[in-house]
Amino acid sequence: MYGAHRGMVPAAPNNRLNELLDHVRAEFDQENARATDFERSLTLQIQEMEQVRQKVYQLEQQQIAIKNKYEEEITRLQRELEARGGPSGSHAMAHGPPAQPPPPSIGHGPSNLFGGIMSGNAAGGAGGAGGQAGQHPSLAPPPPEPQPASGLPTHLSAAQHGAAMGPAGAAPGPGPAGPAPAQAGPGGPPQHPFGGYGQGPANGFGPQGPQPTASPGPKRGARGPPGPATPQQHPAVPLPGSPQVPRPTPPPNAQQALMGPGARPPPPPTAGGPNVGNCLAELEPDQVSDAFKTDGSDWYVVYNPQIRRSLDVKLLHTLPHASVVCCVRFSHDGRFIATGCNRAAQIFDVESGAPVAHLQDPSLPEDGDLYIRSVCFSPDGRYLATGAEDKIIRVWDISMGSIKTSFTGHEQDIYSLDFARNGRLIASGSGDRTVRLWDVDTSQQIMQLSIEDGVTTVAISPDNRLVAAGSLDKSVRVWDTASGFLAERLEGEQGHRDSVYSVAFAPNGRDLVSGSLDKTIKMWEMGGATRVGAPKGGKCVRTFEGHKDFVLSVALTPDGEWVLSGSKDRGVQFWDPRTGIAQLMLQGHKNSVISVAPSPSGKLFATGSGDMRARIWRYVDHPKPV
To answer: Domain Transcriptional repressor Tup1 N-terminal spans what residues (predicted)?
Structure first.
Protein backbone atom coordinates (compact mmCIF):
# COMPACT_ATOMS: atom_id res chain seq x y z
CA MET A 1 0.00 0.00 0.00
CA TYR A 2 2.71 2.34 0.85
CA GLY A 3 4.55 1.60 -2.36
CA ALA A 4 1.44 2.08 -4.44
CA HIS A 5 0.76 5.39 -2.81
CA ARG A 6 4.25 6.59 -3.56
CA GLY A 7 3.75 5.79 -7.24
CA MET A 8 0.87 8.33 -7.49
CA VAL A 9 2.94 11.41 -6.46
CA PRO A 10 2.89 14.10 -9.28
CA ALA A 11 6.02 14.51 -11.35
CA ALA A 12 8.24 17.58 -10.98
CA PRO A 13 7.39 20.62 -13.15
CA ASN A 14 8.60 20.52 -16.73
CA ASN A 15 11.50 22.97 -16.72
CA ARG A 16 11.87 22.79 -20.50
CA LEU A 17 8.32 24.06 -21.06
CA ASN A 18 8.92 26.99 -18.72
CA GLU A 19 12.08 27.87 -20.58
CA LEU A 20 10.20 27.92 -23.89
CA LEU A 21 7.45 30.09 -22.45
CA ASP A 22 10.02 32.54 -21.08
CA HIS A 23 11.72 32.65 -24.47
CA VAL A 24 8.42 33.41 -26.25
CA ARG A 25 7.64 36.07 -23.70
CA ALA A 26 11.02 37.70 -24.22
CA GLU A 27 10.62 37.71 -28.00
CA PHE A 28 7.16 39.22 -27.66
CA ASP A 29 8.51 41.98 -25.43
CA GLN A 30 11.26 42.71 -27.94
CA GLU A 31 8.82 42.92 -30.87
CA ASN A 32 6.49 45.08 -28.84
CA ALA A 33 9.35 47.45 -28.05
CA ARG A 34 10.30 47.56 -31.74
CA ALA A 35 6.67 48.34 -32.72
CA THR A 36 6.55 51.09 -30.12
CA ASP A 37 9.78 52.57 -31.46
CA PHE A 38 8.45 52.36 -35.03
CA GLU A 39 5.17 54.02 -34.06
CA ARG A 40 7.07 56.78 -32.30
CA SER A 41 9.30 57.27 -35.34
CA LEU A 42 6.30 57.32 -37.66
CA THR A 43 4.58 59.91 -35.48
CA LEU A 44 7.67 62.10 -35.62
CA GLN A 45 7.83 61.78 -39.40
CA ILE A 46 4.15 62.71 -39.72
CA GLN A 47 4.73 65.74 -37.53
CA GLU A 48 7.71 66.76 -39.66
CA MET A 49 5.67 66.35 -42.86
CA GLU A 50 2.88 68.46 -41.39
CA GLN A 51 5.40 71.17 -40.51
CA VAL A 52 6.75 71.05 -44.06
CA ARG A 53 3.19 71.25 -45.44
CA GLN A 54 2.42 74.25 -43.26
CA LYS A 55 5.63 75.94 -44.37
CA VAL A 56 4.83 75.34 -48.04
CA TYR A 57 1.32 76.67 -47.51
CA GLN A 58 2.71 79.82 -45.86
CA LEU A 59 5.14 80.32 -48.74
CA GLU A 60 2.31 79.89 -51.24
CA GLN A 61 0.17 82.43 -49.40
CA GLN A 62 3.08 84.85 -49.38
CA GLN A 63 3.47 84.33 -53.13
CA ILE A 64 -0.22 85.06 -53.65
CA ALA A 65 -0.01 88.24 -51.57
CA ILE A 66 3.08 89.43 -53.46
CA LYS A 67 1.43 88.71 -56.82
CA ASN A 68 -1.73 90.59 -55.86
CA LYS A 69 0.37 93.51 -54.64
CA TYR A 70 2.26 93.66 -57.94
CA GLU A 71 -0.99 93.45 -59.92
CA GLU A 72 -2.49 96.33 -57.98
CA GLU A 73 0.67 98.38 -58.44
CA ILE A 74 0.74 97.67 -62.18
CA THR A 75 -2.92 98.68 -62.46
CA ARG A 76 -2.26 101.90 -60.53
CA LEU A 77 0.70 102.76 -62.76
CA GLN A 78 -1.28 102.02 -65.91
CA ARG A 79 -4.08 104.32 -64.79
CA GLU A 80 -1.60 107.00 -63.84
CA LEU A 81 -0.01 106.67 -67.26
CA GLU A 82 -3.40 106.99 -68.95
CA ALA A 83 -4.29 110.00 -66.80
CA ARG A 84 -1.10 111.71 -67.98
CA GLY A 85 -2.00 111.13 -71.60
CA GLY A 86 0.22 108.11 -72.19
CA PRO A 87 -0.76 104.93 -73.99
CA SER A 88 -3.31 102.66 -72.40
CA GLY A 89 -2.32 99.33 -70.95
CA SER A 90 -3.58 97.44 -73.96
CA HIS A 91 -1.72 99.80 -76.31
CA ALA A 92 1.48 99.43 -74.32
CA MET A 93 1.13 95.67 -74.43
CA ALA A 94 1.03 95.88 -78.20
CA HIS A 95 4.64 97.06 -78.12
CA GLY A 96 5.71 94.51 -75.53
CA PRO A 97 6.70 90.90 -76.02
CA PRO A 98 5.57 89.24 -79.24
CA ALA A 99 2.01 87.99 -79.08
CA GLN A 100 1.38 84.29 -78.69
CA PRO A 101 -0.22 82.64 -81.70
CA PRO A 102 -3.99 82.41 -81.27
CA PRO A 103 -5.44 79.01 -80.47
CA PRO A 104 -7.11 77.21 -83.34
CA SER A 105 -10.70 78.06 -84.17
CA ILE A 106 -13.16 75.32 -83.33
CA GLY A 107 -16.35 76.88 -84.61
CA HIS A 108 -19.59 77.34 -82.74
CA GLY A 109 -20.89 75.39 -79.77
CA PRO A 110 -18.30 73.84 -77.46
CA SER A 111 -18.96 71.06 -75.01
CA ASN A 112 -17.80 73.59 -72.42
CA LEU A 113 -19.26 77.08 -72.73
CA PHE A 114 -17.10 79.06 -70.33
CA GLY A 115 -13.74 78.91 -72.02
CA GLY A 116 -11.99 82.24 -71.92
CA ILE A 117 -14.37 83.67 -69.33
CA MET A 118 -11.75 83.58 -66.62
CA SER A 119 -8.53 83.47 -68.59
CA GLY A 120 -9.32 85.46 -71.70
CA ASN A 121 -8.70 89.08 -72.52
CA ALA A 122 -11.24 91.84 -72.04
CA ALA A 123 -10.49 94.57 -74.49
CA GLY A 124 -11.91 93.29 -77.69
CA GLY A 125 -15.28 93.94 -79.16
CA ALA A 126 -17.24 92.22 -81.85
CA GLY A 127 -14.85 91.26 -84.48
CA GLY A 128 -11.94 92.28 -82.30
CA ALA A 129 -8.67 90.56 -81.77
CA GLY A 130 -10.20 87.56 -80.26
CA GLY A 131 -8.42 85.00 -82.37
CA GLN A 132 -8.94 83.57 -85.78
CA ALA A 133 -11.89 84.32 -87.92
CA GLY A 134 -15.05 82.79 -86.65
CA GLN A 135 -13.61 82.10 -83.24
CA HIS A 136 -15.68 82.93 -80.21
CA PRO A 137 -13.89 84.00 -77.01
CA SER A 138 -15.64 81.23 -75.12
CA LEU A 139 -14.53 78.55 -77.56
CA ALA A 140 -10.75 78.74 -77.42
CA PRO A 141 -9.09 75.65 -75.93
CA PRO A 142 -6.71 76.24 -73.04
CA PRO A 143 -3.13 76.98 -74.11
CA PRO A 144 -0.42 74.60 -72.92
CA GLU A 145 1.98 75.41 -70.14
CA PRO A 146 4.08 77.48 -69.79
CA GLN A 147 1.11 79.80 -69.69
CA PRO A 148 1.36 83.03 -71.71
CA ALA A 149 0.37 86.32 -70.19
CA SER A 150 -3.00 86.21 -71.92
CA GLY A 151 -4.52 83.43 -69.81
CA LEU A 152 -4.40 81.07 -66.86
CA PRO A 153 -3.24 77.47 -66.99
CA THR A 154 -6.04 74.98 -66.81
CA HIS A 155 -4.39 72.61 -64.36
CA LEU A 156 -3.17 74.35 -61.23
CA SER A 157 -2.67 73.27 -57.68
CA ALA A 158 -4.79 74.80 -54.93
CA ALA A 159 -2.12 77.36 -54.13
CA GLN A 160 -1.51 78.15 -57.78
CA HIS A 161 -5.24 78.68 -58.13
CA GLY A 162 -5.06 81.48 -55.60
CA ALA A 163 -1.98 82.97 -57.21
CA ALA A 164 -3.72 82.98 -60.57
CA MET A 165 -6.85 84.75 -59.34
CA GLY A 166 -6.34 87.91 -61.34
CA PRO A 167 -6.92 87.85 -65.08
CA ALA A 168 -3.76 88.36 -67.01
CA GLY A 169 -4.90 90.37 -69.95
CA ALA A 170 -7.83 91.79 -71.80
CA ALA A 171 -10.53 89.42 -73.05
CA PRO A 172 -10.73 88.74 -76.74
CA GLY A 173 -13.72 90.10 -78.48
CA PRO A 174 -16.01 87.74 -80.27
CA GLY A 175 -15.10 86.82 -83.75
CA PRO A 176 -17.48 86.98 -86.70
CA ALA A 177 -20.77 85.21 -86.26
CA GLY A 178 -21.19 81.70 -87.49
CA PRO A 179 -23.72 80.57 -90.08
CA ALA A 180 -27.05 82.29 -90.00
CA PRO A 181 -29.37 80.40 -87.66
CA ALA A 182 -32.38 78.69 -89.09
CA GLN A 183 -35.76 80.12 -88.17
CA ALA A 184 -37.92 77.92 -86.02
CA GLY A 185 -41.47 77.80 -87.21
CA PRO A 186 -44.45 77.73 -84.92
CA GLY A 187 -44.89 74.06 -85.45
CA GLY A 188 -41.63 72.86 -83.99
CA PRO A 189 -37.86 73.16 -83.82
CA PRO A 190 -35.64 74.43 -86.63
CA GLN A 191 -34.84 72.09 -89.46
CA HIS A 192 -31.05 72.42 -89.56
CA PRO A 193 -29.76 69.03 -88.44
CA PHE A 194 -26.38 70.41 -87.46
CA GLY A 195 -27.11 74.14 -87.05
CA GLY A 196 -23.95 76.20 -86.84
CA TYR A 197 -21.82 73.23 -85.85
CA GLY A 198 -21.21 71.42 -89.08
CA GLN A 199 -20.92 67.67 -89.09
CA GLY A 200 -18.20 67.51 -86.46
CA PRO A 201 -17.37 64.82 -83.95
CA ALA A 202 -19.90 62.97 -81.92
CA ASN A 203 -20.09 65.58 -79.22
CA GLY A 204 -21.32 68.09 -81.76
CA PHE A 205 -19.01 70.83 -80.60
CA GLY A 206 -15.79 70.57 -82.57
CA PRO A 207 -12.52 68.78 -81.83
CA GLN A 208 -11.81 70.42 -78.50
CA GLY A 209 -13.58 72.05 -75.60
CA PRO A 210 -12.86 75.63 -74.68
CA GLN A 211 -11.03 77.07 -71.73
CA PRO A 212 -12.56 76.68 -68.30
CA THR A 213 -14.64 79.25 -66.52
CA ALA A 214 -12.15 79.68 -63.76
CA SER A 215 -8.94 78.35 -62.39
CA PRO A 216 -9.49 74.86 -61.03
CA GLY A 217 -9.91 73.41 -57.62
CA PRO A 218 -7.23 71.91 -55.45
CA LYS A 219 -6.21 68.82 -57.41
CA ARG A 220 -3.35 69.13 -59.86
CA GLY A 221 -4.52 68.23 -63.31
CA ALA A 222 -8.07 69.29 -62.53
CA ARG A 223 -9.59 71.75 -64.93
CA GLY A 224 -11.84 74.59 -63.97
CA PRO A 225 -15.55 74.47 -64.48
CA PRO A 226 -16.70 75.50 -67.90
CA GLY A 227 -20.34 76.46 -68.20
CA PRO A 228 -22.60 79.42 -67.88
CA ALA A 229 -24.03 81.03 -64.81
CA THR A 230 -27.26 79.94 -63.20
CA PRO A 231 -30.29 82.08 -64.03
CA GLN A 232 -32.50 83.45 -61.29
CA GLN A 233 -36.15 83.90 -62.01
CA HIS A 234 -37.41 84.37 -58.46
CA PRO A 235 -38.35 87.27 -57.13
CA ALA A 236 -12.45 94.95 -53.97
CA VAL A 237 -10.39 95.78 -56.25
CA PRO A 238 -10.74 96.99 -59.83
CA LEU A 239 -9.97 94.38 -62.46
CA PRO A 240 -6.18 94.34 -62.95
CA GLY A 241 -4.80 93.76 -66.40
CA SER A 242 -7.90 94.96 -68.24
CA PRO A 243 -7.54 98.76 -68.42
CA GLN A 244 -10.06 100.49 -70.59
CA VAL A 245 -10.59 104.06 -71.57
CA PRO A 246 -13.60 105.29 -69.55
CA ARG A 247 -16.74 105.55 -71.59
CA PRO A 248 -17.98 109.15 -71.73
CA THR A 249 -21.43 109.83 -70.37
CA PRO A 250 -23.88 110.14 -73.26
CA PRO A 251 -25.61 113.46 -73.76
CA PRO A 252 -29.15 113.79 -72.37
CA ASN A 253 -30.85 113.05 -75.66
CA ALA A 254 -28.77 109.91 -76.18
CA GLN A 255 -29.39 108.83 -72.62
CA GLN A 256 -33.12 109.25 -73.08
CA ALA A 257 -32.95 107.25 -76.29
CA LEU A 258 -31.10 104.51 -74.42
CA MET A 259 -33.71 104.42 -71.68
CA GLY A 260 -36.55 104.11 -74.13
CA PRO A 261 -39.92 105.81 -74.35
CA GLY A 262 -41.73 106.41 -71.12
CA ALA A 263 -38.66 105.78 -68.97
CA ARG A 264 -38.15 107.80 -65.84
CA PRO A 265 -35.46 110.49 -66.32
CA PRO A 266 -32.39 110.28 -64.08
CA PRO A 267 -32.23 112.38 -60.92
CA PRO A 268 -30.12 115.56 -61.03
CA PRO A 269 -26.38 114.98 -60.48
CA THR A 270 -24.76 115.44 -57.11
CA ALA A 271 -21.24 116.36 -56.07
CA GLY A 272 -20.31 112.96 -54.69
CA GLY A 273 -17.50 112.22 -57.14
CA PRO A 274 -16.46 112.09 -60.81
CA ASN A 275 -19.02 111.34 -63.47
CA VAL A 276 -18.23 108.00 -65.12
CA GLY A 277 -21.79 107.21 -66.14
CA ASN A 278 -22.63 103.57 -65.43
CA CYS A 279 -18.97 102.49 -65.55
CA LEU A 280 -18.70 102.45 -61.77
CA ALA A 281 -15.75 100.04 -61.95
CA GLU A 282 -13.75 103.06 -63.13
CA LEU A 283 -14.12 104.62 -59.68
CA GLU A 284 -11.60 104.10 -56.92
CA PRO A 285 -13.08 104.38 -53.42
CA ASP A 286 -10.87 107.37 -52.64
CA GLN A 287 -12.36 109.23 -55.61
CA VAL A 288 -15.81 109.49 -54.05
CA SER A 289 -17.01 111.06 -50.84
CA ASP A 290 -17.68 108.95 -47.75
CA ALA A 291 -21.41 109.31 -48.36
CA PHE A 292 -21.04 107.30 -51.59
CA LYS A 293 -18.97 104.31 -50.49
CA THR A 294 -18.88 101.48 -47.97
CA ASP A 295 -15.64 99.76 -47.00
CA GLY A 296 -15.37 96.21 -45.67
CA SER A 297 -12.41 94.11 -44.62
CA ASP A 298 -11.88 92.67 -48.11
CA TRP A 299 -14.73 94.24 -50.08
CA TYR A 300 -16.14 97.64 -50.88
CA VAL A 301 -19.16 99.27 -52.50
CA VAL A 302 -19.11 102.41 -54.61
CA TYR A 303 -22.48 104.12 -55.06
CA ASN A 304 -23.13 106.18 -58.17
CA PRO A 305 -22.06 109.69 -57.12
CA GLN A 306 -24.25 111.32 -59.76
CA ILE A 307 -27.59 110.13 -58.38
CA ARG A 308 -29.25 109.96 -54.98
CA ARG A 309 -28.00 106.99 -52.97
CA SER A 310 -30.88 104.59 -52.43
CA LEU A 311 -29.25 101.49 -50.94
CA ASP A 312 -26.84 100.19 -48.33
CA VAL A 313 -25.02 96.86 -48.80
CA LYS A 314 -23.41 94.77 -46.05
CA LEU A 315 -21.70 91.37 -46.02
CA LEU A 316 -23.43 88.73 -43.87
CA HIS A 317 -21.58 85.45 -44.50
CA THR A 318 -18.65 84.09 -46.46
CA LEU A 319 -19.02 80.42 -47.46
CA PRO A 320 -15.63 78.91 -48.44
CA HIS A 321 -15.54 76.03 -50.92
CA ALA A 322 -12.87 73.63 -52.13
CA SER A 323 -13.36 74.64 -55.77
CA VAL A 324 -14.96 77.25 -57.99
CA VAL A 325 -18.56 78.09 -57.05
CA CYS A 326 -20.51 77.73 -60.29
CA CYS A 327 -23.99 78.63 -59.02
CA VAL A 328 -25.93 79.91 -56.03
CA ARG A 329 -29.68 79.67 -55.38
CA PHE A 330 -32.03 80.43 -52.46
CA SER A 331 -34.88 78.21 -51.35
CA HIS A 332 -38.33 79.70 -51.93
CA ASP A 333 -38.81 80.51 -48.25
CA GLY A 334 -35.39 82.18 -48.12
CA ARG A 335 -34.13 80.02 -45.23
CA PHE A 336 -31.50 78.09 -47.16
CA ILE A 337 -29.03 78.63 -49.96
CA ALA A 338 -27.59 75.97 -52.27
CA THR A 339 -24.29 76.14 -54.11
CA GLY A 340 -22.80 74.02 -56.86
CA CYS A 341 -19.10 73.30 -57.15
CA ASN A 342 -16.83 70.40 -58.12
CA ARG A 343 -18.51 67.01 -57.52
CA ALA A 344 -20.99 68.25 -54.91
CA ALA A 345 -23.84 70.59 -54.12
CA GLN A 346 -24.02 72.10 -50.65
CA ILE A 347 -26.84 73.68 -48.65
CA PHE A 348 -26.29 76.33 -45.98
CA ASP A 349 -28.52 77.95 -43.39
CA VAL A 350 -28.93 81.58 -44.45
CA GLU A 351 -29.28 83.03 -40.95
CA SER A 352 -26.20 81.39 -39.46
CA GLY A 353 -24.17 80.50 -42.54
CA ALA A 354 -23.74 76.97 -41.17
CA PRO A 355 -23.64 74.00 -43.58
CA VAL A 356 -26.80 71.89 -43.60
CA ALA A 357 -26.25 69.27 -46.29
CA HIS A 358 -23.49 67.98 -48.56
CA LEU A 359 -24.96 66.20 -51.59
CA GLN A 360 -22.57 64.01 -53.57
CA ASP A 361 -23.42 60.97 -55.65
CA PRO A 362 -21.67 58.00 -53.97
CA SER A 363 -21.74 56.00 -57.20
CA LEU A 364 -19.29 58.35 -58.92
CA PRO A 365 -15.55 57.64 -59.08
CA GLU A 366 -13.53 59.19 -56.29
CA ASP A 367 -11.18 61.08 -58.61
CA GLY A 368 -11.68 63.46 -61.51
CA ASP A 369 -13.73 66.63 -61.94
CA LEU A 370 -17.50 66.86 -62.21
CA TYR A 371 -18.73 70.42 -61.80
CA ILE A 372 -22.30 71.12 -60.75
CA ARG A 373 -23.40 73.86 -63.15
CA SER A 374 -26.84 74.62 -61.79
CA VAL A 375 -28.94 74.05 -58.68
CA CYS A 376 -32.57 74.86 -57.89
CA PHE A 377 -34.94 74.09 -55.01
CA SER A 378 -38.43 72.70 -55.42
CA PRO A 379 -41.07 75.21 -54.26
CA ASP A 380 -41.79 73.20 -51.10
CA GLY A 381 -38.09 73.02 -50.24
CA ARG A 382 -38.03 69.21 -50.07
CA TYR A 383 -35.92 68.63 -53.16
CA LEU A 384 -32.86 70.11 -54.84
CA ALA A 385 -32.23 69.56 -58.54
CA THR A 386 -28.64 69.61 -59.80
CA GLY A 387 -27.27 69.62 -63.34
CA ALA A 388 -23.70 68.67 -64.11
CA GLU A 389 -21.09 67.86 -66.72
CA ASP A 390 -22.06 64.19 -66.84
CA LYS A 391 -25.34 65.10 -68.63
CA ILE A 392 -27.48 63.86 -65.72
CA ILE A 393 -30.10 65.81 -63.76
CA ARG A 394 -30.31 64.55 -60.18
CA VAL A 395 -33.24 65.41 -57.94
CA TRP A 396 -32.17 65.04 -54.31
CA ASP A 397 -34.38 64.37 -51.31
CA ILE A 398 -32.72 66.86 -48.98
CA SER A 399 -33.85 65.35 -45.68
CA MET A 400 -32.63 61.89 -46.70
CA GLY A 401 -29.49 63.10 -48.47
CA SER A 402 -30.25 60.69 -51.31
CA ILE A 403 -31.26 60.87 -54.96
CA LYS A 404 -35.02 60.75 -55.50
CA THR A 405 -34.83 60.47 -59.26
CA SER A 406 -32.43 61.06 -62.15
CA PHE A 407 -33.16 62.34 -65.64
CA THR A 408 -30.98 61.27 -68.56
CA GLY A 409 -31.19 62.16 -72.24
CA HIS A 410 -29.03 65.24 -72.73
CA GLU A 411 -26.02 64.60 -74.95
CA GLN A 412 -23.81 67.38 -73.59
CA ASP A 413 -23.13 69.19 -70.32
CA ILE A 414 -26.16 70.59 -68.52
CA TYR A 415 -25.61 74.29 -67.92
CA SER A 416 -28.87 75.48 -66.43
CA LEU A 417 -31.95 74.24 -64.54
CA ASP A 418 -35.13 75.82 -63.24
CA PHE A 419 -37.97 74.41 -61.13
CA ALA A 420 -41.49 75.57 -62.04
CA ARG A 421 -43.56 77.16 -59.29
CA ASN A 422 -46.07 74.31 -59.57
CA GLY A 423 -43.37 71.92 -58.33
CA ARG A 424 -43.98 69.54 -61.20
CA LEU A 425 -41.79 70.73 -64.08
CA ILE A 426 -38.04 71.13 -64.37
CA ALA A 427 -36.53 72.91 -67.38
CA SER A 428 -32.97 72.14 -68.44
CA GLY A 429 -30.62 73.72 -70.97
CA SER A 430 -27.60 71.97 -72.44
CA GLY A 431 -24.74 72.39 -74.85
CA ASP A 432 -26.49 69.79 -77.01
CA ARG A 433 -28.67 72.63 -78.40
CA THR A 434 -31.84 71.58 -76.60
CA VAL A 435 -34.16 72.79 -73.87
CA ARG A 436 -36.02 69.92 -72.21
CA LEU A 437 -38.96 69.78 -69.83
CA TRP A 438 -39.17 66.98 -67.26
CA ASP A 439 -42.07 65.79 -65.12
CA VAL A 440 -40.90 65.20 -61.56
CA ASP A 441 -43.93 63.10 -60.62
CA THR A 442 -43.57 60.61 -63.47
CA SER A 443 -39.78 60.93 -63.87
CA GLN A 444 -40.28 61.36 -67.63
CA GLN A 445 -39.19 63.86 -70.28
CA ILE A 446 -42.31 65.53 -71.63
CA MET A 447 -40.90 68.00 -74.17
CA GLN A 448 -37.75 68.69 -76.18
CA LEU A 449 -37.15 72.06 -77.85
CA SER A 450 -34.24 72.21 -80.29
CA ILE A 451 -32.36 75.27 -81.53
CA GLU A 452 -29.33 75.98 -83.69
CA ASP A 453 -26.69 76.49 -81.01
CA GLY A 454 -25.74 75.60 -77.45
CA VAL A 455 -28.22 76.56 -74.71
CA THR A 456 -26.53 78.40 -71.84
CA THR A 457 -29.44 79.40 -69.58
CA VAL A 458 -33.14 78.67 -68.93
CA ALA A 459 -35.86 80.20 -66.75
CA ILE A 460 -39.54 79.37 -66.19
CA SER A 461 -42.01 82.23 -65.77
CA PRO A 462 -43.72 82.75 -62.39
CA ASP A 463 -47.06 81.51 -63.80
CA ASN A 464 -45.43 78.31 -65.23
CA ARG A 465 -46.70 79.13 -68.74
CA LEU A 466 -43.43 80.11 -70.42
CA VAL A 467 -39.85 78.92 -70.54
CA ALA A 468 -37.08 81.24 -71.77
CA ALA A 469 -33.62 80.26 -72.95
CA GLY A 470 -30.44 82.09 -73.91
CA SER A 471 -28.05 80.71 -76.48
CA LEU A 472 -24.62 81.04 -78.02
CA ASP A 473 -26.36 82.36 -81.15
CA LYS A 474 -27.04 85.69 -79.32
CA SER A 475 -30.79 85.08 -79.14
CA VAL A 476 -33.34 84.75 -76.36
CA ARG A 477 -36.22 82.40 -77.13
CA VAL A 478 -39.48 81.98 -75.23
CA TRP A 479 -41.75 78.95 -75.60
CA ASP A 480 -45.17 77.97 -74.30
CA THR A 481 -44.63 75.12 -71.83
CA ALA A 482 -47.91 73.41 -72.71
CA SER A 483 -47.69 73.38 -76.51
CA GLY A 484 -44.01 74.00 -77.29
CA PHE A 485 -45.06 76.98 -79.43
CA LEU A 486 -42.22 79.47 -79.97
CA ALA A 487 -43.79 82.60 -78.53
CA GLU A 488 -40.83 84.99 -78.92
CA ARG A 489 -37.41 85.15 -80.49
CA LEU A 490 -35.67 88.22 -79.11
CA GLU A 491 -32.75 89.27 -81.30
CA GLY A 492 -31.94 91.50 -84.25
CA GLU A 493 -30.79 95.11 -84.23
CA GLN A 494 -32.05 95.60 -80.69
CA GLY A 495 -30.57 92.31 -79.53
CA HIS A 496 -27.28 91.20 -78.11
CA ARG A 497 -24.11 91.22 -80.18
CA ASP A 498 -22.67 88.14 -78.50
CA SER A 499 -23.70 84.96 -76.69
CA VAL A 500 -26.42 85.24 -74.05
CA TYR A 501 -25.31 83.64 -70.78
CA SER A 502 -28.19 84.42 -68.41
CA VAL A 503 -31.91 85.14 -68.55
CA ALA A 504 -34.42 85.90 -65.80
CA PHE A 505 -38.13 86.69 -65.74
CA ALA A 506 -39.40 89.80 -64.02
CA PRO A 507 -41.92 89.22 -61.21
CA ASN A 508 -44.74 90.37 -63.53
CA GLY A 509 -44.00 87.42 -65.87
CA ARG A 510 -44.16 89.69 -68.93
CA ASP A 511 -40.65 91.14 -68.95
CA LEU A 512 -37.26 89.47 -69.21
CA VAL A 513 -33.69 90.52 -68.57
CA SER A 514 -30.71 88.93 -70.29
CA GLY A 515 -26.96 89.19 -69.79
CA SER A 516 -24.41 88.65 -72.52
CA LEU A 517 -20.75 88.38 -73.40
CA ASP A 518 -21.22 91.73 -75.18
CA LYS A 519 -20.96 93.23 -71.63
CA THR A 520 -24.56 94.47 -71.64
CA ILE A 521 -27.85 93.61 -69.98
CA LYS A 522 -31.10 94.03 -71.86
CA MET A 523 -34.67 94.26 -70.63
CA TRP A 524 -37.26 92.82 -72.98
CA GLU A 525 -40.97 93.44 -73.08
CA MET A 526 -42.83 90.51 -74.58
CA GLY A 527 -45.66 91.12 -76.97
CA GLY A 528 -48.12 88.60 -75.55
CA ALA A 529 -47.48 85.93 -78.20
CA THR A 530 -48.22 83.05 -75.86
CA ARG A 531 -50.55 81.08 -78.13
CA VAL A 532 -50.23 79.59 -81.58
CA GLY A 533 -50.85 82.14 -84.29
CA ALA A 534 -50.43 85.21 -82.06
CA PRO A 535 -48.03 87.87 -83.38
CA LYS A 536 -44.56 88.07 -81.91
CA GLY A 537 -44.13 91.59 -80.59
CA GLY A 538 -41.25 91.35 -78.12
CA LYS A 539 -38.90 94.30 -78.05
CA CYS A 540 -35.90 95.59 -76.12
CA VAL A 541 -37.02 98.47 -73.90
CA ARG A 542 -33.79 99.08 -72.01
CA THR A 543 -30.07 98.42 -72.39
CA PHE A 544 -27.84 98.51 -69.32
CA GLU A 545 -24.23 99.34 -70.18
CA GLY A 546 -21.40 99.81 -67.73
CA HIS A 547 -19.70 96.49 -66.98
CA LYS A 548 -16.11 96.29 -68.19
CA ASP A 549 -16.30 92.62 -69.10
CA PHE A 550 -18.66 89.71 -69.83
CA VAL A 551 -22.00 89.69 -67.99
CA LEU A 552 -22.32 86.15 -66.64
CA SER A 553 -25.47 86.30 -64.49
CA VAL A 554 -28.54 88.51 -64.13
CA ALA A 555 -31.54 88.55 -61.82
CA LEU A 556 -34.34 90.79 -60.56
CA THR A 557 -35.28 91.34 -56.94
CA PRO A 558 -38.70 89.90 -56.00
CA ASP A 559 -40.27 93.36 -55.86
CA GLY A 560 -38.94 94.22 -59.32
CA GLU A 561 -37.17 97.30 -57.96
CA TRP A 562 -33.63 96.30 -58.93
CA VAL A 563 -31.77 94.37 -61.61
CA LEU A 564 -28.64 92.57 -60.36
CA SER A 565 -25.73 91.52 -62.55
CA GLY A 566 -22.48 89.62 -62.00
CA SER A 567 -19.55 89.95 -64.35
CA LYS A 568 -16.09 88.74 -65.25
CA ASP A 569 -14.92 92.20 -64.12
CA ARG A 570 -15.45 90.79 -60.57
CA GLY A 571 -18.18 93.31 -59.86
CA VAL A 572 -21.86 93.11 -58.97
CA GLN A 573 -24.00 96.04 -60.05
CA PHE A 574 -27.51 97.10 -59.02
CA TRP A 575 -29.49 98.83 -61.78
CA ASP A 576 -32.70 100.81 -61.76
CA PRO A 577 -34.90 98.96 -64.29
CA ARG A 578 -36.88 102.13 -65.03
CA THR A 579 -33.90 104.24 -66.06
CA GLY A 580 -31.10 101.81 -66.89
CA ILE A 581 -28.82 103.70 -64.50
CA ALA A 582 -26.46 101.85 -62.17
CA GLN A 583 -27.07 102.50 -58.47
CA LEU A 584 -23.94 100.81 -57.10
CA MET A 585 -21.00 98.56 -57.85
CA LEU A 586 -19.90 95.92 -55.32
CA GLN A 587 -16.37 94.51 -55.42
CA GLY A 588 -16.47 91.52 -53.09
CA HIS A 589 -14.65 88.74 -54.94
CA LYS A 590 -11.15 88.15 -56.27
CA ASN A 591 -12.33 86.46 -59.44
CA SER A 592 -15.29 86.47 -61.82
CA VAL A 593 -18.74 86.66 -60.29
CA ILE A 594 -20.28 83.64 -62.00
CA SER A 595 -23.68 83.65 -60.31
CA VAL A 596 -25.94 86.15 -58.53
CA ALA A 597 -29.22 85.30 -56.80
CA PRO A 598 -31.70 87.42 -54.82
CA SER A 599 -33.58 85.88 -51.91
CA PRO A 600 -37.31 85.41 -52.57
CA SER A 601 -37.95 86.73 -49.05
CA GLY A 602 -36.00 89.47 -47.33
CA LYS A 603 -33.45 91.93 -48.63
CA LEU A 604 -30.68 89.43 -49.26
CA PHE A 605 -28.69 88.33 -52.27
CA ALA A 606 -25.90 85.84 -52.85
CA THR A 607 -22.89 85.67 -55.13
CA GLY A 608 -20.73 82.76 -56.33
CA SER A 609 -17.27 83.23 -57.78
CA GLY A 610 -14.19 81.69 -59.27
CA ASP A 611 -12.35 82.62 -56.07
CA MET A 612 -13.89 79.50 -54.45
CA ARG A 613 -16.27 81.46 -52.25
CA ALA A 614 -19.97 82.13 -52.08
CA ARG A 615 -21.14 85.15 -50.12
CA ILE A 616 -24.47 86.27 -48.68
CA TRP A 617 -25.18 90.01 -48.61
CA ARG A 618 -27.90 92.25 -47.24
CA TYR A 619 -29.19 95.35 -49.01
CA VAL A 620 -31.32 98.00 -47.32
CA ASP A 621 -33.39 100.63 -49.10
CA HIS A 622 -32.97 104.24 -48.09
CA PRO A 623 -36.23 106.09 -47.48
CA LYS A 624 -37.31 108.01 -50.54
CA PRO A 625 -37.72 111.77 -50.16
CA VAL A 626 -41.27 112.99 -49.81
So the answer is: 16-84
